[in-house]
UniProtKB/TrEMBL annotation:
This is DUF4153 domain-containing protein. It comes from the Bacteria. The keyword Transmembrane helix applies. Keywords: Membrane, Transmembrane, Transmembrane helix. The chain crosses the membrane at residues 65-85, 91-111, 120-140, 146-166, 186-213, 219-240, 252-274, 286-305, 317-340, 352-377, 389-411.
Amino acid sequence: MKDEIITHLHDPSQLERLYRANKAPFKRDFMTMYPSLKGNALADFWHERLTYETDEINWGNSRELWFVLMAVLVAGIIAKFPALFSIDEEFFYPRNIGFTVFPLLTAFFAWKNNLSTGKIALLTGLTLAGVIFINSLPNVQTSDTLLLSCLHLLLFLWSILGFAFVGGPQNDVEKRIGYLKFNGDLVVMTTLILISGGLMTGITLGLFGLIGFNIEEFYFKNVVVFGLPAAPILGTYLIQTNPALVGKVSPVIARIFSPLVLVMLVIYLVAIIYSGKDPYNDREFLIMFNALLIGVMAIIFFSIAESSKATKSRVEIWVLVLLSLVTILVNGIALSAILFRISEWGITPNRAAVLGSNVLILINLLLVTAQLIRALSKKGNIAGVGKAIALYLPVYCLWAIIVTFLFPLFFGFK
């Protein structure tokens, strides 16, 4: 979109058309370019327009609203498939929960970004490949590869959504960082919607209970099943039509939680020494340890994505450096534990998946930490950190493909 903005910079009507077609991408790209356009009368006008704050919620145009309403309806119908077609819920939901939301969000961004027919066909083919493959796996409840495939399928679908959001396989760092920021904003918005929905559910059930109607079963099977997948779809729509709606909330959350997580992590590592627990001989503890690692890494990436264009204070950079170093230590412990377990008891699908994930995360953390130290020493800037994250994202996508589609074959569906 940057090229289109430059091309039509002297044509107000064309700029207006571009803006109305894709408001969020237009604003993101324009604000990125504005420092070099400052002084141009039309560019200054658009800067004032895009930075003007209003208390009103923009609900978009009727076409967008209808698209979202249809997406919500389709998501609810997919979630109701077990009831509509007498499918075993234990078979359907672990394999297909991601298909209730991700393909619809992918379709939304493919439509918003006016992707070419070829790219849409590619996205559709990849999604269908996921549907067919995951539902063709043997229905063995104790299969580790089935569980791993189901979990990594979500990362695969997330990667497809990122392709649609960015607009293709291009190495546009700003758009990839924008995708990470979108995910952070979506978590905030979806959480608010779910909290509101939970309050409404409690009030509704309580009011009907007061007059003698027990509607819990009906409500959860017909309202909640539509409401849960609707939350991220509606959250996405609100973020795209109102870019500033949570734009100020997410950075504040990132700034608050980064130092708090750092303190918690240091205390936790010290507490491990006194607890007698260790990830080398306790499988459940190793699982929780890796979950902690992924959560902390997500906070680091989210914090950087929220401020990749802004100037961070030295204190904030120091917090991120220390958090990254401590996370590398946690990763090192987890990695040594899984290597110990492999040397003692051999390779299994779970151990192979955890080993691969930890190695990829460690490499990414080292790259990010190196860029943070460069920013701290003023040999680089925070944008370099964002670039280190953005350029590494396809590696996670490739790993998701390997675990989802190849692990069941490598390990004989065990």
